[in-house]
Specification:
The complex is a heterodimer of chains A (113) and B (116). Chain A is mostly beta strands. Chain A contains no helices and 12 strands. In chain A, strands 2, 5, 6, 10, 11 and 12 form a 6-stranded mixed beta sheet that branches. In chain A, strands 3-9-8-7 form a 4-stranded antiparallel beta sheet, with no helix packed on it. Chain A is globular, with a radius of gyration of 14 Å. In chain B, a hairpin with a 5-residue loop joins strand 4 and strand 5. In chain B, the strands form 2 sheets. In chain B, strands 2, 4, 5, 6, 9, 10 and 11 form a 7-stranded mixed beta sheet that branches. Chain B has a 4-stranded antiparallel beta sheet with strand order 1-3-8-7, with no helix packed on it. The chains are: A mainly beta (113), B mainly beta (116).
Chain lengths: 113, 116
């Protein structure tokens, strides 16, 4: 079945540091890929998405590129802020089973001054 | 994107009781889903709420424990029945709309449930 693997956290960075959160997936066909963010005490918000190979999703300075050859969708940001502290979830929506989302385990990011 | 309201936002319940969580959307949506997020863990899909028919449950979840209703295209409820401390989780409703955004899920803020 479909699965998503994320790097374990917590990831602790200083403000303005470069961020990479690794995400790889296993799925049949051509899934859509997503990054969701969960700020403390809140629900999930869609951060960015990509629906086909080589697509780059971007939002709020975050980027991720759909790499079919490496089955990856790594999240990057050039300069993180304290306000980026949250839990980040990588997810996929497979080509079978309707619009069901399969989530990774989540990576907690802590950004310090 | 759709605006999703969940009620209650949090609750503390006694063992053996039941809690019904409501999910209201400000527009008609194609699909509605219910997820569980256990403490410190990722999200697990409980079921897909089908309008006018029985929900479709994922492996490990059953209707007797998590009855779901969806009377129309903007509203659904999830009941957590005969609760035990293991049911302490965040329960989240999500929706998809049609058209070009049909594969994007939007989430409510969640219901934080603690069972004593």
């Amino acid at each position: 079945g479909d699965s998503v693997t994320q790097m374990e956290g917590p990831v602790t960075l200083s403000e303005e540091a470069f961020l990479t959160i690794n995400c790889t997936y296993t799925a049949t066909g051509y899934p859509s890929l997503f990054w969701y963010v969960q700020y403390p005490g809140e629900g999930l918000q869609l951060l960015l998405k990509a629906t086909k190979a080589d697509d780059k999703g971007s939002n709020k300075g975050f980027e991720a590129t759909y790499r079919k050859e490496t089955t990856s969708f790594h999240l990057e940001k050039g300069s993180v802020q304290v306000s980026d502290s949250a839990v980040y979830f990588c997810a996929l929506s497979g080509t079978r089973g309707g619009n069901k989302l399969t989530f990774g385990t989540g990576t907690q990011l802590k950004v310090e001054l | 994107s759709a605006v999703i309201s969940q009620k209650p936002s949090r609750d503390i319940c006694q063992r053996g009781t039941s809690l019904t969580i409501q999910c209201q959307v400000d527009s008609q949506v194609t699909m509605m889903f219910w997820y569980r997020q256990q403490p410190g863990q990722s999200l697990t899909l409980i079921a897909t709420a089908n309008q006018g028919s029985e929900a479709t449950y994922e492996s490990g979840f059953v209707i007797d424990k998590f009855p779901i209703s969806r009377p129309n295209l903007t509203f659904s409820t999830l009941t957590v029945s005969n609760m035990s401390p293991e049911d302490s989780s965040i329960y989240l409703c999500s929706v998809t709309s049609g058209g070009l955004a049909k594969n994007i899920q939007y989430f409510g803020a969640g219901t934080r449930l603690s069972v004593l």
